[in-house]
Amino acid sequence: MSQKEKVKEKEETLLKPNFLSPNVSKEDLVQKLMVRSDRWLRLKILQKLSGYLKTVDQETPEKQKLEGCAASLIQNFLVQHKDKDVRLLTADCLASIIHIYAPEPPYNDDQLKEMFKLFAKQLEALEDTESKLWNRTYTLLEKLAIVKAYALACVIDDEAIILTEVIQLFFRIISAKHNNAVKTHMVDIITTIIEEAEVLPQPLLDALLIHLVSPYRTENPVGHRLAQTCVNRCQQKLQGPITQLVVDIKRSDSELKKNVHELIYELNRINSSLLSRIVPELEREMKSDDAETRSKAVQLLAKLFAAPKSTAATSFKSLYQQFIAMYSDKNPDIRVIMTAFSQHIISGHEELVDSILEHTKNHILDMVVTVRMKAVEAVCNAAAEHIDRVPKSLLDTVFDRLRDKKPEVRSKTMRELSTLYSTLRDKRSESVQDKISGIPALILNCYKTGEYEDRARVEKYFDDMLLSATARANVRSQRFVEIYNTLGNNQSFNSLIRFLSDKRAFQLEFQKFLERKEKGEPIGQMAASLSIKLTGQAVAAYKECFTSIYGMKDEKIIKKLKLMTDPSTKYKDILSAKKDVSSRLAKHKVIKKITRRLACSIINDESVQVICQMETENDTEQLNNLTLMGEISALYPSTFANALEQIQSLVTSKNKTIVEKAVLILSHIGAEYQTTETAITKQFKTSLFNMCSHGSPHQSKCATTAISRIFKKPEVQLASLLETLKQELDVKNKHVESVLVSIATIVRTAPQMFTESEHKKDVISFLVDLLKTSVSKKNKNVITYKILAVKILRNYVLGQKKTPTEMMAILYKIIEEDGDMYGSAITEEKNLMRLHAASSIIKIICHRRHDDDMIPPMHFQRLAGVIQEGNAEVKIQFLSKLNKGLKSFRLPIRYLSIPVLCATDSNKDVQSSVRKDPFIAEESDGRQAKQILQHSIKLRREYYKVNASKIDPRNQMEILPEYVIPHLIHLIAHLPTIEQDPERVKSVGVHYLSFFLDLLVVGAGDNFSFVRNLLSGIMSCKDVISPMSQNIHRLSEIAFSLVNKHSDKRNWQQNKSHPGDLFLPVTLYNLPTEAESIMFRKNQIDLEDLAPVVNHNMEDEKKKNVATPAKKKENEERETPKKGGKKGKTPKRKQEDSEEEEEERKKQKATPAKKATPAKKTRGANKTKPVEEEEEEVEEVEEEEEKPKAKRQGRRKKEESEDEREKTEEDADGSEAEESQVKDGTKGKSKKAEKPKKVEKPKKAEKPKKVEKPKKGKKEEEEKEEEEEEEVETPKKRKIETKEQVRQTEERFSDCYVGQEEE
């Protein structure tokens, strides 16, 4: 018998038909299964058994006879068999047994545990869908799900471990490869476990819920959906256990401890009813004192309520109301969360928008920067999605953040608004355009009112986002015109022009820079100048970048830079050049800002061509385009080279306004006619000349300017025009205003031609007669003609190489006569005349600074008086003129004292304009701007800080703001209110001085000693104008008290002094004689008298002894009586000093000081004292200066005899030369008036005058050391200008007055 036959016989014996009969015993079946036969044979038996068990029903009576079969299947040799197939078939059979015997399986708990372990081990094969066992394993999964086998696991011991393991198994093996049937059976099994379990332990819940949160949620999205499905099916059973888990999670070791809020959010997404019992816990967390706990709760609820399609706000109304109250939480981080919540509510829940609008608006105005920034971002993002849900009032609040004090808030707002505009600009809905059309204007306003960083941002967002950097050139040009048409007010329009002007100025400056590079010339300070144009200061990074460009040898990059600054370059080439240059100079972080400013990306030939060819539907649109072209033509005239004929044709238009706009453009681009050789028609030329004399004033100005530029020989044309205009000079002529405007333009554009013209005398004569003309009801325009006459005189002065004193005299005459030289005029007209005369003088000084030396102090006093006279409008306009000159450093520093005179102005608008920048205030629609004085002080200090090493010590008087003090004190001392009533010097002086010193002496008080030294120098001098007046000394004492007030509040120490010598203006201050010094000491003001005036806290004033340089008799140390009435001890004075003081007093009584003759006022000038008396005074001062220093200890000795002084002067080095120089000056040969007096520092041999501070109980030696550090030296030597020079200067002006007679 063969081997095959033996196997077949054995198989037939084992697998006989009745081997599975109900009567088979356990032993027989086990014996058959344990037969050591082939693997195939054992599997055949199990397959037959599995098939048989599937046919047995729960209701069949034979199931009771299957106990032997059931017992045999649970044997270890099958359950723990090494063969996978055997184990899998065994598990399948056991699943059938469970189904047959349900709900009471024929196994004990230990056997059931082994069985469920077998199930879990076999189900692992589901992970590999390519496995040969996968189908059979799926059958097992299906059977377990159908028979609900795991319901048995819920009633045995240690069921939590078994149930948890199978849930973990399912989530571990599930993947996207499995079909829906597998997922369904797994859900059925997990649902069975949850529903049948009496208690759901924490590990089991963790195994299920952990897949709802990160990182499992993202790592296995299929498992995440499986968990969601299971929780949704068992929500009622899970509600209680989940609530308990959340409540106790802080005290447990659950894996969900760190993700409990995320779990709650996911549960809400599944079914909000799961949170019904968790809400009280969330309310408690929001009321917690711990900020972190509140923050997490708020963050969770924000996600719950803002989730798409979430109904939590309506389901939990009380919770939502409490949540809304968190908008006002004290923690800024929580307010930031609430702000982000607003964005999602506006975007996804329109029904809840009304509940958060007011809170969001408050967050935009929040005190914390991060909250404001997040609120701006939230509103702009929400508006980009649903602009209809964002009310205009909320957007207006966002717009206001463009003027925020914090630069980061302004930057954030500008970026978000630019993004919003670029997103919605193509939507033509009226409601949308109504809300966003004003954004470009608001952003442009930031250019003029903001800082340099704000200007850089405006340039970036305007070019890159508002116009779109990626758009074609023609599209950008159209958008530019659209933005221009939205600029309704003058402020935004001026900001755009200022922006384009600065851009063009930088381009032209950089072109000069490249020209120097090509020629090999040194750039000098050009790198710093370019940096200042960009940032307002010489920043090292910018200077380094420009220096690197200067040293670059790559001609390709240099060529690219030239292309960027050339308006004829196409836009696409500009972009390419920017990219190449930025890449080549990438090591410089500032290169992008530089290339953005350099590139002609906004205005170029392409854009101008588009604007000129743009079709307009009506005259209004055409006028708007012409207005824009007029501004562009002033900056980029070469871009209109191809539009000359078009503009020329507009001049002959019947519309007067169009003609006016066209002529304005011609006045800008006239030079292009010579470049392009465009033909000039006879009709065009006739129209221009006719407009000069018969057009409107603006037309005449533009036409005259155009004539001066269009023709190759403009002098000939202008001379012919002047002859025609002279014949039209008649007050009765209705076009006389236009004639005067044309003459003013001729004088400005061709001053040499006008000077040499034979018609000059006739014109000047007419102007003088015009200024004499009185205003009448019949001719109300005379005041306008007078103003134009003043402008013509101003232009004439500016065009001359040598200042015509007769013209300047006329301007001062107008000011001195209160705007009414000869004819009677009403107050308003006087104010206007005075304003324009003063403004003309200011402009002349700005352009011809050396002319300021010709203005004597009394004339300057009258010029400054304009700010105190007239209405508010006049004052503000005059301040505007001053401010422009001060900011550009064109005006001398003494003009900075003029704005201080508005400190006591009763008009709040004027006073606020002093503290604000008027030029900005006029343009900023009420926005608070920088103060004139503070801004000027800041500019001068920054300039000095950068250029301190290059500034000559004598030029410091025009740079350092502290040098305003001498001019201000002298200006106040000669105010009419004080000169008429000297007793008002205290009350008036305090207001003015405190107004200025509050801005000057701030911060750490670094200039504290400097200011005190200046005041000491002033107190040791006499007033040049009024030598016997003590007003300057009284005002200096007041200033001392005010400065000490600041020092006391801030505990400043006099530990810093001004580096170098100190100077005083010689035209204002002079050294007094000895007699005058004694008289000044007797009448000086006491600091204690100032206490009520300056509101200075002087509780210990009697303990203090502030000694000024004028108080020579108090040079020794002493203590004043205290409050209690006890007097402090006075240190012994040197006997020598006492004798000198006594002798000095006796001499003063015996020989009274000579009184100086006060200057007699005339109609135009001041008469000074006789020359002989002045010479005597100067000799006395010179003698006082040349006393030997070695014979004095901080004070001047009594006056020696004339012979002794001559001997002493012979011994002193260089004394004769200096004395000779001063004496020669008394005869008219002294040094120039502008050379300042010098206040030298004290030398060691001298005992300087000192300012004592209050003693605080220290030892006497320590007190002396402190006082020596605080010593203030009275000026020792000064270069003095005699009064004869001042008198001669004033007489020179007085002789120039027209028709003046001395009274």
TrEMBL record:
One of its GO terms (cellular component) is nucleus. Residues 1096-1303 are annotated as: Disordered. The keyword Cell inner membrane does not apply. CDD domains: PDS5. Residues 1172-1185, 1209-1219, 1262-1272 have a biased composition (Acidic residues). Pfam families: PDS5. Keywords: Cell cycle, Cell division, Mitosis, Nucleus. PROSITE patterns: HEAT_REPEAT (PS50077). GO terms for biological process: cell division; DNA repair; mitotic sister chromatid cohesion. Residues 1123-1132, 1157-1166 have a biased composition (Basic residues). It is found in: Nucleus. HEAT repeats lie at residues 394-431. Residues 1111-1122, 1197-1208, 1220-1251, 1281-1294 have a biased composition (Basic and acidic residues). This is Sister chromatid cohesion protein. It comes from Planoprotostelium fungivorum.
